[in-house]
Amino acid sequence: MRVCLDGRQIRTVSKQELQIIDACCAPLACEPLSESEAAELAPLFKAVADPVRLRLLSLIASHEDGETCVCDLTAAFDLTPPTISHHLKVLRQAGLIESERRGTWVYYRIAPAVLARMSALLMPASRALAETA
Amino acid sequence: MRVCLDGRQIRTVSKQELQIIDACCAPLACEPLSESEAAELAPLFKAVADPVRLRLLSLIASHEDGETCVCDLTAAFDLTPPTISHHLKVLRQAGLIESERRGTWVYYRIAPAVLARMSALLMPASRALAETA
DNA sequence: TCCTTGCTTAGATGAACTTCTAATCAGGAT
DNA sequence: ATCCTGATTAGAAGTTCATCTAAGCAAGGA
């Protein structure tokens, strides 16, 4: 882990992540997206196109245990529990997170496959970059 | 360039792209996004969270010349020119594309930096992946 | 100068989305 | 059994968004 100029932490990409990037997801610049592909992908981006859901995703992803209790998530926002629950449902229905109830509490964790697919789609979107390799 | 099981073309990641991935964009799992970071990032994802805009981006990105005339873009959709113009404006205001007028026609091309940032943010969002490296 | 073509802006409409309050469900404790 | 706490569902209100038609702007040709 390194720290960059603006103070944010960064790290290098692992081989395993490269395999995901390299997996079966044609990047945007490869060939035009079909209507059905676009219709399938757009809801995934819509799920993360909200500041609350981005922070929820980030809170869950950066939690040490790999999972986070809803009560901790709710406490991090100035929003009512039903609102947080709504956003978690949107993320879950998009396949970005998974939930599990253990006793009184419900825990959420990241489902990495869909995020990896979205990332791979956007990454090499510049033909110039692809060809100067 | 290879072809995967479902017939879509894929390719490996270049060193230059790795540098972009590795650049100054903390991935989601690194640490929780601040409220202001989330507020800044969400509109970027909102810009691509629409099937028409995803296809527009893909059409522009995959065009041989690196740029595409609006007339070609409009022809690819079953929508009126004002609607296409609206979507192009959304993408341009998000910093994802740039436009240039040459004579009668207006050409759009990809602005790769923002896409690279979004991709880097989503990619290593799984702590499990990051730690099995 | 006037007309034609390409593209964008303005304004309106109907759908979708975010948020809330109130009510409901699930588990655990008294 | 009853109550309490954590979480979700139901329904409503206000806002944002995608799309259209109509109008405007820019550039080139008759």
Report the structural category of chain A.
Answer: alpha+beta
Q: Given the C-alpha coordinates, what overall shape of chain A results?
A: elongated
Largest interface: A-B, 69 and 69 residues
How would you write the strand order of the largest sheet of chain A?
3-5-4
Oligomer: homodimer
Sequence of secondary-structure elements of chain A: EEHHHEHHEEHH
What is the number of strand segments of chain A? 5
Overall pLDDT of chain A? 81
Proportion in β-strands of chain A: 5-15%
End-to-end separation of chain A in angstroms reads 25 Å
Descriptive notes:
Two copies of one chain form a homodimer. The first copy, chain A, starts with a strand and ends with a helix. Chain A is elongated, with a radius of gyration of 17 Å. Chain A has helices spanning 15-21, 35-48, 51-61, 70-75, 81-93, 112-122, 127-131; strands at 2-3, 9-10, 67-69, 97-102, 105-110. In chain A, strands 3-5-4 form a three-stranded antiparallel beta sheet. Chain A has a two-stranded antiparallel sheet with strand order 1-2. The model of chain A is unreliable at 1-25 and 125-133 (pLDDT under 50). The longest helix of chain A is centred in the first third of the chain and has 14 residues, at 35-48. Chain A is α+β, with helices and mostly antiparallel strands and 133 residues long. In chain A, α3 packs across α5. Chain A contains seven helices and five strands, in the order ββαααβααββαα. Chains A and B meet through β2, α1, α2, α3 and α6 of A and β2, α1, α2, α3 and α6 of B. Chain A binds a DNA duplex (30 and 30 nucleotides) through residues 50, 52, 69-71, 74, 79-89, 101, 103-106.
